[in-house]
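[Automated response] Your request has been received and processed.

Submitted sequence:
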Amino acid sequence: MERYREEEMTESRAERPVNTRRAYAKYNEKRDLPLLLAVRNSQFITNRQLCAQLLADGTETSRRGFAWRASRLVDLGLIETLPHQFPYPGTIYTITRSGVACLETCGEGLVSLTSESKNLANRSQTRHYLELGEIKAALREAGILKNWTGDLELSSLNQSIDVPLAKDYDAVAELEVSGKGYRTAIEYERFLKSSARYRELIDVIEEEKQLQLLVYLTYSMDLVYQLKTEFEGVSFPVAIAPASHFRGDILGVRMHHTLGKNRNSVDYLEPGRAAFKEILRVAATRGSS
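Generated structure:
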């Protein structure tokens, strides 16, 4: 109960306008920069998600310090707040044009989003990015997340490197389970696309050489069954489950998968569903063969 009370106090402080004498513009690279980067790279992020991420990274050491810093950066016009979007609790942050310009000045610009871009974050996609934030937080809390790269950064990298990924995924998560590393793409699907669009997507991911697994998470079980049908016959490892189930039991959640084809394989998985931990292990074996 005390923890929730403290979170509510942190929330209210972050929303409260800061006295302008306290909101001084002196730049703190060790504290301001990580917060601005976290907001920009998430596109939309709740107060709770942002605070938990910065505390986990060691950038902030207390909720009180985070609340003061977030309020100060809002007051300076580098980030802005948006109304609550239930069921995600609390204030939502997004980067402003001034915030993007600040990051560019500090050497942290992206090709995919600049201070001169016609549009910044698309607010119709707010819930999409908030759910990705919940997925990221669940992986971190499970103790298996080593690194997370969101779609803004992936798009920038894919435009800049010689060997890009097959597509701009919603995110790429580098995981470590039982001492072994895995590089996994994450896609969060809220609405069903046309079959033609999925066929195009399948053609793309069949060429993927830099990842071991594509995890498709959805907002409902109905959509899981639709995607399962669309991805039947795909040779690249794909695992599908509702996002809420995945977040609730990451390593143990049973997911539909595309790995049940080669019965002669030592690491053969029965068609249907398997635990995410087993899917990771078998997908990594397939990738190395």
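Summary generated for your ticket: Residues 39 and 94 are 6 Å apart (CA to CA). The longest strand covers residues 180-189.
If you did not submit this request, please reply to this message.
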